[in-house]
Structures are given as structure tokens and as C-alpha cells.
Design brief:
Layout (H helix, E strand, L loop, with lengths): L1 H94 L3 H15 L6 E5 L8 H13 L7 E7 L4 E6 L2 E6 H20 L1
Helix pairs in contact: 1-4, 2-3
Length: 198
Amino acid sequence: MAGIENLKERLLSDANEKAANIENEASMKANSTLEEAKSKADKIIEELKEKAERDGRERKERIISKAKMEARDMVLKAKQDAIDNVFRLVVERINNMDIASYRDLFKKLILNNVETGDEEIVLSVKDKNKFDQNFLFDINRELMSMGKLGNLKFSQETLNISSGFILRRRGLEINCTIEALIRNLRDELEAELAKQLF
């Protein structure tokens, strides 16, 4: 019986040892799996943090870029408005000139734009009564001294414009309205004016 007891004890001891080994091995595998899972989780967390930081930086850059574009657009609009105001004031000042200055301006415009001296001058409705035959006589005399015909005449027709005139000759027209002159001048002067204003 002692042999059976010894055998039983050895089997129990072997089984306990095997169980302990299995338990140790399982514990080691569990710890290894746990460490691996923890490492993977840490890596995923780190990747998520990096992605969040990257996304945050990109979003911040987009917001800053958009804000810069909006600010640039606002500055450009303010500059454009300022330039518009300058040219609007020019038109206003021309329209509010005293009669002598206004006639002098018209005389210069006519002399600079007449080609032959036999054109017809079409005035605006509001300017019709500001110019008389004496005004025309002086201009025709000056045209003749420049070697041109002195046959300018006022048209019976009037235009619905704020100021300026149209020179007509045989179906051809030269637009000398203040709006057209300012528009042409603006094309030439806008860049220079922007430099001076800003």
C-alpha cells in the first residue's frame, strides 16, 4: 500500500508541478499578451494624439489662411472704395466748379479732342445754357490759329449725362463726357493713386 501511496503522491506531485507549470506558462502568456495589448493600445493612443495634433494644426492653418484671405479681401475692398471715392470727388468737384473754371475746362477738352474743326458739340441738358456763341467763337478762332477749320457748332440735340459733351463729325463720335474721361484717366492712374494712398 505504501507503494500505491507513493505512486499516488508522485502522480499528485507531478500533476501539481504540471499545473503550476501550465499556470506559470499561462500567466506568462497572459502577461505577454497583456503587455503586447498595452503596447498596441499605447501605440494607437500615440497615433491618435499625433493625428489629433496634425488635424488641429491643419485646421488652425486653414482657419488662419481663411482669416488672412478675408482680411486681404477687406483691405482690397477698402482700398478700392477709397479710390472710388477719390474719383467720385473729382467728378463732384468738376460738377461744382464756378462757371469760368467750368468753361475753361470745356475749352481745353474741346481743343484737345477736335480733329478737323468742323465737328458738332452735343452738350448735356444741364450744360446747354452754360455756353453761348461767344464761347464757341473764341474756340473757333483758336482752332484757326492752330491750322484747323473754325466751324464748330452746338448741336440742337442734348444728352442725358451729368457733364461733358460728345464731339460728332460725319457719324463719328468722340466721347468727352466727364464719366468717360474719368474712366480713361482711372485706368491710367489707378496704380499710381493706390501707391500714394497706401
